[in-house]
Amino acid sequence: MNSASIVAGIALMVGLAAIGGITYILLVPPSSAAPAGPPNVEFEINGGEFDSFFGFGSPGKKVDSPGPEMRVKQGEIVKIAFSNVGQIPHSFRVVKEKKWDAPAVFGAAIGDATRPISPSQSGTTTFKADKGGSYFYICTVPGHVERGMFGSLVVAP
Ligand SMILES: [Cu+2]
């Protein structure tokens, strides 16, 4: 083996290691801080369509707009289970601004615009409501907020 082929071999290995590292970064999602301890309060919420609108509703009730208000106390660990009872994909996210691409507050999100929850599927999120204030929960699929898919979440200080 001449030195040129050794250099080529090393370059190839370095290249493969770099690709492996990038692939690892792309495939392994960053771990979100899991709140310590069991939830203090739990909600179940459905999302779906009604008439020509989209909305949220408590289990056993029709989805509506706005969805039912959720109230928690600051510092509580909140668990939310979201079920898609509709015919098209939906998602759940707590936000400060009622916009489909607003960032998640408290890291509270179930599905997103590119990977929403499919019909008949469900998911959960557990988070610490560590800042008091008025928030919204929304569906992040573009266009769904405008068709009514939101509700309010109040974190009482
Ligand atoms: Cu939706």
The gross shape turns out to be globular
Q: Just name the CATH architecture of the largest domain.
A: Sandwich
| Ligand identities | copper (II) ion
Structural class: alpha+beta
- Here the CATH topology of the largest domain equals Immunoglobulin-like
Give the beta-strand count. 9
The secondary-structure element order is: HEEEEEEEEE
Tell me roughly what share of residues is in helical segments: 10-25%
Total count of helical runs of at least 4 residues: 1
User: Which spans have pLDDT < 50 for at least 5 consecutive residues?
Assistant: 9-32
Q: Span between N and C termini?
A: 72 Å
Per CATH, the class of the largest domain reads Mainly Beta
Report the mean per-residue pLDDT as an integer.
86
Total domain count = 2
| Radius of gyration from CA coordinates | 21 Å
The share of residues in extended strands comes to 25-35%
Q: How are strands sequenced across the largest beta sheet?
A: 3-9-8-5-6
CATH superfamily of the largest domain: Cupredoxins -  blue copper proteins
- Major beta sheet summary: 5 strands, mixed
Task: Provide structural commentary.
There is one protein chain. This protein is of the alpha+beta class and about 160 residues long. Helix content is about 15%, strand content about 35%. It contains one helix and nine strands; from the N terminus they run αβββββββββ. The protein has a five-stranded mixed sheet, with no helix packed on it. The longest helix is centred in the first third of the chain and has 25 residues. It folds into two domains: about 30 residues; about 120 residues, Sandwich (Immunoglobulin-like), CATH 2.60.40. The structure holds copper (II) ion. The site of copper (II) ion has 7 residues, from loops.
